[in-house]
Design brief:
heterodimer; B: 230 residues; mainly alpha; Arc Repressor Mutant, subunit A; 2 domains; 7% strand; disordered N terminus
């Protein structure tokens, strides 16, 4: 049998533990004289009692031990996972620095640099050098010492003079 | 070192955070970890308001974080355990619930939202959603919690006890088969023992809608029990 329509809502409120104080007396008075609603109320209470879970057991409570620390640790891991761009940026900078060190000489405007010892020796040589005497250089040359060649040159000059005189 | 997520406009001293008077202290034992305590209305640091705890966590106070988790872990467990196959499963769901709720809280508070949803409501919403997804993903239509102790153990029992255990298992399975809204309202009421007003706020429905869903669910379970008895 179905419960009385006017009281069905109150029966459900009672089963939910949400019956208003003002309705408690009214429902109690009705239940005292209505076995159908009483049976329905008991059946609802039984169904909800079966549906409810028993309190957590020892194993369930024990499983929560250290939960706060575990959550905090997982949070820190998640924060670190969010930072790979920084790690990649650092690695890229390192690679770029190494590449620049290796490739810089190839792009330099000056020639390859000499070792320091060679540079010092070249500097010392430069400071000792003196301009040669031009007379000494002339007399030392083959042209100055070749008498035949000098005579040929002198003969050529005379011939040229003769040509000029003849034209006039 | 943690990045500063939230600017509190507080150096050492007192100030207002989310409408709550708080004080920021630098700790002597750990200089890098400031501590935020509640100073509103003469309440001591032992009874720390939830907003103040959240604020303290955001500036790196691990004690505040631990207190928030410990304060709410029974509630979270009560919501997720119905969907968990083992206690370890329940712990995993609880851990994921806290992680997601804290992540949401950080995002919202970092945007400077005032009067944000209370942390407890976040937790309830996240726990309900995770539990629902867990059930769907795992394809578990029953769990350890569904099976009454006597029936699960399979030990010898009186015929009445066995009959009751069978009826209980049937009703608990019927809970998992309820339409989503009815199931959420019923379990938040039965398992987490929340008032209908809070259930409504957590699920984004009115208190009256929550009551109606509960009534519909209770009628279905009553019908299930009636079939069992027939």
């Amino acid at each position: 049998m179905k419960p009385c329509t006017d009281f069905e809502g109150l029966l459900l409120d009672q089963a939910a533990g949400d019956l208003a104080q003002a309705d408690e007396v009214r429902l109690a008075a009705h239940l005292a004289g209505c076995p159908t609603c009483r049976a329905e109320g008991e059946a609802l209470a039984a169904a909800l009692s079966m549906a409810a879970l028993p309190p957590p057991g020892e194993a369930e409570r024990a499983a929560l031990t250290g939960l706060a620390e575990a959550v905090r640790m997982e949070q820190r891991r998640a924060e670190l996972r969010l930072r790979p761009p920084l790690r990649y940026a650092a690695a890229l900078l390192a690679v770029a620095a190494a590449a620049a060190f290796l490739l810089a000489p190839a792009f330099s405007r000056h020639g390859p640099s000499l070792p320091a010892a060679e540079l010092a020796a070249a500097g010392a040589e430069a400071s000792e050098w003196q301009a040669p005497d031009s007379d000494e250089v002339w007399t030392a040359s083959e042209l100055a010492s070749d008498d035949g060649a000098a005579a040929a040159m002198a003969g050529a000059d005379e011939l040229a003079l003769d040509v000029l005189l003849a034209d006039e | 070192m943690r990045r500063p997520i939230l600017v509190l406009n507080l150096r050492e001293g007192e100030g207002v955070f989310n409408g709550v008077m708080v004080a920021l202290h630098m700790r002597d034992d750990e200089p890098g970890r400031p501590r935020l305590t509640l100073v509103d209305g003469g309440r001591t640091g032992d009874v720390r308001d939830e907003d103040a705890l959240l604020g303290a966590w955001l500036v790196g106070d691990d004690d505040a974080f631990g207190e928030l988790v410990r304060r709410h872990q029974p509630l979270v467990l009560s919501i997720v355990r119905r969907y968990a196959a083992t206690p370890e499963d329940a712990r995993d769901l609880a851990q994921r619930t806290f992680l997601k709720a804290f992540e949401s809280a950080r995002r919202v508070l970092a945007r400077g939202v005032r009067n944000a949803v209370p942390f407890k409501r976040w937790l309830i919403r996240v726990a309900v959603n995770l539990a629902k997804n867990h059930r769907r993903d795992a394809g578990r239509w029953s769990s350890v919690a569904v099976e009454p102790e006597g029936l699960a153990a399979g030990g010898p029992s009186a015929p009445e006890a066995l009959e009751r255990a069978q009826a209980t298992a049937r009703v608990r399975r019927a809970v998992l088969d309820l339409p989503r809204r009815q199931r959420e309202v019923l379990t938040l009421r039965l398992d987490a023992e929340l008032p209908f007003a809070e259930i409504g706020e957590s699920l984004g429905i009115t208190e009256n809608a929550a009551k109606v869903s509960f009534h519909l669910a209770a009628r279905r379970l009553r019908a299930e029990l009636g079939q069992e008895g027939a």
